[in-house]
Each structure stands twice: as C-alpha cells, then as structure tokens.
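Quick one, tokens below:
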C-alpha cells in the first residue's frame, strides 16, 4: 500500500486523545434548533459513518468540524484545538464539486488544488507539492492518467479524483460527504476498501446513505437527526434505517441474485 510521506501521529501523541470532541454543543439557524447539548467523541484512526435524513443536520455537523460555523453554546475541539486552527490537517471532499468540464486542466492539476492553502505560496508548485499530489493519485488508482484532461474521467474516476484532492494536503483527518454517490456497486466496493486502508494513517469520517459501508471496520455509526447519537454497527439493520429514513426505507443486497422461493427463479 502506498503511504503518505508525512508521519501522522508519531510526533504529537494523538493516539490517546480525541480527534473530534463536541462538549454540550448547541447550534441553531435562527429559531430552528439543529443541535442541543450534543456530545461527540471520535478517537484517532477510526473509520466513522454518519447517517441521517436530509435536513437532519449532517452538513451542519461537518461545517462545525471544519470551523465554517461556530456553535451557539458548548465547545468543539479538533486535535485538541479550535476547528480553525486544525484546517490544514483536514482533507475534505464535498458532496457536490463545481468542476467545469470545459476548463482545460489535467487530473494532476485537480489533485494539486488540495495543496492550496497548505503552505503553498504564490507561484509555481514546488516539488513537494507535486510529489504529494502524485502520491494521492497513486492511492486512488489514477496516477497513470495524471496527465489526462480531467474531463475524460468517468463518474467513478471523478469521485476518486476528488478524494485524491482531499488527500493531497496529507491530512490527519479525512472527511467525505457522500463519497459513493452515483457510483456502481463495484466502484463503491473499491472505494470502501481504499477508505479501510486509509484508516491506518488517519481518521476517516464519511457521510453516506449507503448501508454497505457499515462493516466490521466501522467503529461508530453516528446518527444525526436534530441530535447526535452514537450507535454500534451491530444495531444497523432494516429497523434502524427505517427509524432514520422512514418506513419506506429498505436494505438492498447487491452481491447476490434475488431468489423467488415460489417460482424457483433468480
């Protein structure tokens, strides 16, 4: 497995501390209360799944972690400090990326965007920036097409490129918002395996509606529904998902055929 060059935890001893810590956090949009006295603790090197209905507060939670919003009450600590002070250590892949396919830039150029604001100054990218972008592209399997126009990529490759852009800053915390959106089952499985391997080097937090991501490698399932509740993965089943998304939610198994016991057909 390709590893990021910068040592992530050896110099700072974060293995015994929380990467993300919410203490009695409250937040509202005007009169609309989103969180009230919410607590959340995510230790280092965990793979965490955030689930919840649209409008339940998942994006708000991410913005609070990123320091884009400030709580009305309570305390948020990222790596023991303020969210703003930790931004250079966070790689973030948004759900929607505004990349104009008509813009003539390469796959590597998109990955290099992750270096902006990470010590990069005005002018040409330095060798260390190029190396970091190339390592990130190799991690996601796009190094061989790094000189291609990004507009040539398939939908699955584009999602991987956005992850590479987030990885290019060599983060200690990787946050992904709907990383499997619009991906077929095979590509989603490859992405899942990548995130599991990345957990050895960083903490991975992802928002996803895909229950296939809940495996034995996921330590915490965080339900965000105008509150923040942490559940063990063993509780994630059809009843759990119906409680979150409504009675019409069903779990669909993609890795086997459907069998009709009456007809005998699959």
């Amino acid at each position: 497995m390709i590893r990021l060059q910068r040592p992530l935890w050896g110099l700072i001893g974060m293995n015994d501390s929380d990467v993300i810590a919410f203490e009695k956090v409250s937040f509202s949009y005007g009169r609309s209360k989103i969180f009230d006295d919410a607590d959340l603790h995510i230790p280092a090197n965990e793979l965490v799944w955030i689930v919840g209905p649209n409008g339940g507060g998942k994006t708000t939670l991410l913005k609070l972690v990123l320091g884009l919003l400030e709580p009305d009450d309570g305390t948020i600590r990222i790596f023991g400090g303020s969210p703003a002070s930790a931004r250079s250590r966070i790689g973030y892949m948004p759900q929607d990326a505004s990349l104009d396919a008509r813009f003539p830039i390469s796959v590597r150029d998109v990955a290099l965007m992750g270096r902006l604001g990470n010590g990069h100054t005005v002018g040409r990218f330095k060798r260390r920036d190029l190396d970091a972008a190339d390592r990130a592209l190799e991690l996601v399997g796009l190094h061989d097409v790094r000189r291609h126009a990004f507009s040539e990529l398939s939908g699955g490759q584009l999602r991987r490129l956005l992850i590479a852009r987030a990885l290019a800053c060599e983060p200690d915390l990787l946050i992904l918002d709907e990383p499997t959106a619009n991906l077929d089952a095979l590509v989603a499985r490859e992405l899942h395996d990548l995130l599991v391997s990345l957990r050895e080097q960083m903490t991975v937090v992802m928002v996803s509606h895909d229950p296939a991501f809940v495996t034995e490698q996921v330590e915490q399932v965080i339900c965000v529904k105008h509150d923040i509740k942490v559940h063990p993965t063993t509780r994630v089943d059809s009843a759990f998902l119906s409680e979150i998304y409504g009675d019409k939610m069903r779990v669909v198994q993609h890795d086997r055929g459907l069998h009709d016991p009456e007809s005998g057909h699959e």
